[in-house]
């Protein structure tokens, strides 16, 4: 006996990825329904060899459904997820809507899967931001060995993390550079994104941090260890898919880079590609469509007593969000909801 699954936000890039991964991993579902806002009613989406017609999330009855995977904006998630939860359907939400709610578990499956059991309080499990997900996956095995004291992170984030309209703006601005008179002024971003980098991801907060920078700091503490000190700078780059991060870690205990390589090589969800030669590292374009978080450029930091530097890259849609949501659903089904 399989599960009844709803995918809310099925017409978004993230929703497409969730449906693809559910099919690829042969999730034990007897029924999968695609939901979206009223404007997308009837839009067809693919689920394996099937074609699903999108239904209106506003009027959808979640009664009898086991899990709902939400790929909607935060405001929409706040509006519809509680209704699904109240109907007895466990919500797995990919937005930031519930991440900092102390009664909602924030789960990176390779790091704190045991926290999923806390779903019962609100019937909601939250997925971290894609950049946070990659960071905690790499820090966790090293933290277990040498205790992370402080981390300095610079992210280089793809436009797909902002949405479809932002991807269109990058594409149109890029084309406009080569066609006089067809230049596209910034609309979705505060500055031109084509052939440029923007040191702002999300709105600014009172302390000068952007929303995305605060999220990475807060989510890492909630998932991994509240004692870790973090300094984060988030940068939007003209890449469609694939986030990268430059990470400097200071530990309480000394950790040799060779031992760190051995640890990371065996850690779940990570792939170590670290050759000290031209091209001996991974860049965003190579991660598209992959399930792993890649680690490269691992080396000792000579400026602190116990420091390492590394480079992380992952497909922000597939691994950073969609796979996490499906992995949480798999664990819920296997260890908590067990049917049949």
Topology, element by element:
Layout (H helix, E strand, L loop, with lengths): L2 E6 L4 H12 L4 E8 L7 E4 L2 E4 L1 E2 L10 E4 L3 H13 L3 E4 L15 H4 L11 E3 L3 H17 L1 E10 L6 H13 L34 H13 L5 E8 L6 E9 L5 H10 L3 E3 L11 H4 L5 E8 L6 E8 L3 H20 L3
Parallel strand pairs: 1-2, 1-6, 2-5, 6-7, 7-8, 9-10, 12-13
Antiparallel strand pairs: 3-4, 9-11, 11-14, 13-14
Describe this structure in words.
- The structure is a single chain.
- This protein is an alpha/beta fold and 340 residues long.
- The protein has two domains: 3-128 and 321-337, 3-Layer(aba) Sandwich (Rossmann fold); 131-315, Dihydrodipicolinate Reductase, domain 2.
- It contains nine helices and 14 strands.
- The protein has helices at residues 13-24, 74-86, 109-112, 130-146, 164-176, 211-223, 257-266, 284-287, 318-337, and strands at 3-8, 29-36, 44-47, 50-53, 55-56, 67-70, 90-93, 124-126, 148-157, 229-236, 243-251, 270-272, 293-300, 307-314.
- Strand 6 (67-70), helix 2 and strand 7 form a beta-alpha-beta unit.
- Helix 1 (13-24) packs across helix 9 and helix 4 packs across helix 6.
- The longest helix has 20 residues, at 318-337.
Keywords:
single chain; six-stranded mixed β-sheet; six-stranded parallel β-sheet; 2 domains; Dihydrodipicolinate Reductase, domain 2; Rossmann fold; 340 residues
